[in-house]
């Protein structure tokens, strides 16, 4: 009888609740207004010839390298950030190796690492979700081969300072340090300039968030040229599809569109945080395109009440330390009007039953 590997049979599954998403989708941190018109024009220009031939990744990598301020040898285009995490796990992890993550965080770090037979070391964030740098440093050992840090973090929106990130890289020279900057555009600070002088540092970026291209699955992994040679060995030469590559130049060129959208999100984020404070709801200041709030014991009921009002938000109660927490994506000014109106109504429905301690 054919059996999957033991680690696969016991692997945690990730099932995004994508079905039945009718309403204003503020549950998945997607761009809520879509991609730029220039990207749509490029998409309409995709012809039969491009669809019939295998995609050529290298011109896109050269363009992205210039955009990021690194060399083409330091860049690999990926099928979203998820593939970048997968490739690092396949490149550097053996069964019994250790992977350090600070929780709560993006669950795919654990899943891809566990699939190799590596052991997860989960370090709980501090009470206010501040990054536990001393505790992470204390857990680095001989078997540490990968440390994954989302910056800004999902689902909290918190960040880690540059000095701490580079300190962790220096303390673990035999481990790959992945700094996942999927939400970089809403934060504005990066360590990608350090990949040339930090041999074990990798930085991931995505076009799914600010650029509005989640459906095209286009990401970037950057690192030292010598290490990226190794990562390329486990990557498919055709991992990024031709349609995504055709749209990439237009996405890179339309900086004005991305800048306007990011400005809208930052303004909406501040507005949402003010509203939560006025309603007496505990929240954590965010540097991403979402805000995490603690609704309390009635978080599930709150999510249903928001859905009834046509707004989808994400219950994160199952994440470590996130009991009763709900994550809300920030949208355009008009979408924020709808969100805040629904938020007031849903909180009012819960009344004195809400617990947000």
Residue stretches low in confidence (pLDDT < 50, at least 5 long) are none
Number of strands: 13
Based on secondary structure, the structural category is alpha/beta
- Whole-angstrom Rg: 21 Å
3D shape: globular
Mean pLDDT: 95
Helical coverage, percent range: 25-40%
For the terminal residues, how far apart are their CA atoms? 52 Å
**Gross CATH architecture of the largest domain:** 3-Layer(aba) Sandwich
Q: Considering the protein shown, what is the CATH homologous superfamily of the largest domain?
A: Type I PLP-dependent aspartate aminotransferase-like (Major domain)
Provide the spatial order of strands within the biggest beta sheet.
2-8-7-6-5-3-4
How many structural domains does the protein architecture include? 2
CATH fold name of the largest domain? Aspartate Aminotransferase, domain 2
CATH class of the largest domain: Alpha Beta
> What percentage of the residues does DSSP assign to strands (E)?
15-25%
Query: How would you characterize the largest beta sheet?
Result: 7 strands, mixed
Number of helix segments? 13
Instruction: State the order of secondary-structure elements, H for helix, E for strand.
Output: HEHHHEHEHEHEHEEEHHHEEHEEEH
């Amino acid at each position: 009888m054919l059996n999957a590997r033991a680690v696969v049979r016991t692997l945690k599954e990730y099932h995004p609740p994508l079905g039945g998403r009718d309403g204003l989708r503020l549950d998945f941190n997607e761009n809520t207004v879509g991609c730029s018109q220039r990207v749509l024009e490029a998409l309409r220009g995709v012809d039969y010839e491009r669809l019939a031939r295998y995609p050529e990744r290298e011109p896109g990598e050269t363009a992205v390298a210039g955009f990021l301020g690194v060399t083409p040898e330091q860049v690999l285009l990926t099928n979203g950030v998820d593939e970048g995490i997968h490739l690092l796990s396949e490149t550097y992890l053996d069964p019994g190796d250790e992977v350090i993550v600070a929780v709560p965080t993006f669950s795919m770090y654990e899943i891809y690492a566990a699939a190799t037979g590596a052991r997860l070391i989960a370090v709980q964030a501090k009470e206010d979700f501040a990054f536990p740098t001393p505790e992470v440093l204390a857990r680095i050992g001989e078997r540490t081969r990968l440390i994954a840090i989302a910056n800004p973090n999902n689902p909290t929106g918190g960040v880690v300072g540059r000095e701490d990130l580079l300190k962790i890289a220096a303390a673990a020279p035999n481990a790959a340090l992945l700094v996942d900057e999927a939400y970089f555009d809403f934060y504005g600070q990066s360590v990608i300039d350090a990949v040339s002088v930090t041999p074990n540092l990798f930085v991931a970026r995505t076009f799914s968030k600010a650029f509005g291209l989640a459906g095209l699955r286009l990401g970037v992994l950057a690192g030292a040229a010598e290490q990226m040679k190794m990562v390329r060995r486990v990557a498919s030469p055709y991992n990024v599809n031709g349609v995504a590559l055709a749209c990439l130049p237009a996405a890179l060129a339309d900086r004005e569109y991305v800048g306007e959208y990011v400005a809208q999100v930052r303004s909406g984020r501040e507005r949402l945080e003010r509203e939560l404070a006025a309603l007496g709801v505990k929240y954590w200041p965010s540097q991403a395109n979402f805000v995490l709030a603690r609704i309390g014991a009635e978080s599930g009921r709150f999510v249903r009440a928001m859905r009834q009002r046509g707004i989808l938000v994400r219950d994160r109660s199952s994440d470590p330390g996130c009991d009763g927490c709900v994550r809300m994506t920030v949208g355009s000014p008009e979408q924020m009007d709808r969100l805040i109106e629904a938020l007031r109504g849903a909180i009012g429905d819960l009344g004195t039953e809400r617990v947000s301690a």
